[in-house]
Amino acid sequence: TVKVPKDKTIDNTLAIFKDGYNFIPKRIQNHHLDVYETRVLGEKVALLSGIEGAKLFYDTSRMNRKDALPKRVLKTLFGEDAIQTMDGDAHTHRKLLFMSLMTPDALQELYEITTKNWAHFTKKWSSMKKVTLYDESRELLCRTACEWAGIPLAEKEVKKRTRDLSNMIDGFSAVGPKHIESRRARKRSEEWIEELILQVRKGNLEAEKGKAIYEMAMHKDLEGQPLDARMAAIEVLNVIRPLVAISKFIAFGAVALHEHPETQTRVALDDEYLFQFAQEVRRYFPFVPFLGARVDHDFTWQQYPFKKDQLVLIDIYGINHDPKIWENPDQFNPERFIDWDGGLFDLVPQGGGGYYKGHRCPGEWPTIEVLQASFRYMTKHLGYDVPKQDYSYSLKKMPALPKSGFIISNVHFKN
Ligand code: HEM
């Protein structure tokens, strides 16, 4: 019989920080199975990778999300009792609410708002000596997200809201002051949006049907009850917070354009290539390292005895770089998507499986839309120099980011 490989050390919590994005790949990729056992925070944890591992992770008859996320993540990144923690019919019903926001018209509008804001920012940047693209694009996306979601945003609060929305994301894995600030950012943001939800319900704030703020305010759960105002606010934040997070892919995309100058003209002119480039940015660069679920009931898979309630982690970064799935995975090559068959379990930067039953990110299309609008604008209309700087990134630091935030100078309109 074949033995399922496992760590011999007693606890590997610290190894997560030491190995970063390679925590699971390092353990699993040299073995013949897609499962590996380790111990994290005193729990016996099953690590899953590969297409087969992803299929198991997204099999809702065998995995669930109840208690899969640590409290510290809920208090910062996601919010308590929101869609990420739901299972079964209640989850599907909530997911439909999110998916209803992603109509072709709404996505087209998102593309247009994003492009408009790139034009505004290009004008502003043209009078600045240096521009840190990561910082500036967060504000650009905060404005974009609020407009798209139907949220009024006063000029004087833009910086504060941008900071809070990004601190919620970056503080969940931190300790000490950064983590505490992340919790405060969540509390402030929830209070801000909760007030707007109440205004929409009273009819004091005009909101258009189809906009996130309106749909979350008016949504009825499976029992026909409206969401608690705080819950509705948390779900609105589940739309605008990740939209701001796309700034990480924009900074990484800028690195790719700079390191592969031959891609620039095609990104500017060729729609299919633009799509392939955006997909390759999502595959190649590190963002989400892994995701967690819990085992629904005892079963054996690939000879490994999964135990009810056991924590399971799926290797998101590793699957996007799995040599069994991708040819030369560590090469940046948009053309690999020319004949990609759109598999549900191979390109998983935003989760895998279907949208409705499982937890795959409902924001995948908006993300691609924002990236396409941004990369098109950057290559077609944004003239800039890239001064000497260290834009490298470390796979040991989660979430990863180019060190310099990608600095550009001499910004001007092209043509
Ligand atoms: C879920 C990544 C953008 C809304 C997820 C998941 C990942 C992810 C990995 C979890 C999948 C799972 O649990 O199995 C990303 C990345 C983004 C992004 C890397 C781009 C930077 C967006 C956008 C939106 C969004 C733009 C909204 C417009 C959500 C929601 C969930 C989710 C609501 C929870 C879905 C559920 O539990 O069923 N995302 N996302 N995300 N994402 Fe995104």
Structural class: alpha+beta
Q: Helical element count?
A: 15
Question: What characterizes the major β-sheet?
Answer: 5 strands, mixed
Question: What is the number of E strands?
Answer: 10
Q: Which strand order does the major sheet show?
A: 1-2-8-5-3
Shape: globular
How would you spell out the order of helices and strands?
HHEEHEHHHEHHHHHHHEEEEHHEE
CATH class: Mainly Alpha
Q: Could you tell me the radius of gyration in angstroms?
A: 21 Å
How does this structure look, described?
- It is a single chain.
- This protein has 415 residues and is α+β, with helices and mostly antiparallel strands.
- It has a single domain, classed as Cytochrome p450.
- It is built from 15 helices and ten strands.
- It has a five-stranded mixed sheet with strand order 1-2-8-5-3. Strands 4-10-9 form a three-stranded antiparallel sheet.
- Strand 6 (299-301) and strand 7 form a beta hairpin.
- Helix 10 packs antiparallel against helix 11.
- The longest helix is centred in the middle third of the chain and has 31 residues, at 229-259.
- The N and C termini lie far apart (67 Å).
- The relative contact order is 0.17.
- The model has no long low-confidence stretch (mean pLDDT 95).
- It binds protoporphyrin IX containing FE (HEM).
- Residues 83-84, 95, 98, 238-239, 242-243, 245-246, 249, 287-288, 291, 349-351, 359-363, 366-367 line the site of protoporphyrin IX containing FE.
